[in-house]
Write a structure and sequence with these properties.
Shape: globular
Helix content: 10-25%
Structural class: alpha+beta
Oligomer: single chain
Amino acid sequence: MTTEALVETPTLAGFKEWALVCAALERGETSLILRKGGIAEGRAGFRFKHSDFFLFPTFFHEQLARTRLHPETVVPTPEPGTITITARATVEWTELVTDPAILEKLTPLHILQQSVVDERFHYGKEGEIPAINVAFLRVWKLKTPWKFPDAPKYGGCRSWIDLPDLPTDFAETPALTDEEHARRSTTLRELLAK
């Protein structure tokens, strides 16, 4: 059994994430985002300030080497001058993880190299307690890619951006069945409780 496409109008927030992570979420290979934040997050640091957002893919050539994906994985390439959105996510729950042992247990459930997770975990000001935000997502694939012109307002090292109005043909379908999504949620909750 699979949940039908949502009818409600989603929030027009974009969450900037590596294109390879966005693609893995959309394919159902993972349901996790591990995030520390961008340089422009402000004094309070990163927070999942939206529980409903579109995955806004970002591109840089070192992405593949910083994941545990197969070396021959096809790296998505952007269409010049165009932003293409292919998935939306809703946050089921988040947890601020301060124990590196828990992060190691989560390794099979995300695509990042352990060195990247460690780097994000320890990034911060001197004297700050190491931590990383873990979010468990429900991901929805757009039936038709949403394309719009790129603009300077989408740039910069920040996590959240405002998106234009949705296309009139907006429709989506879940990346995972309800049963698989529930199984992953239970598995993650059990790992985080240990």
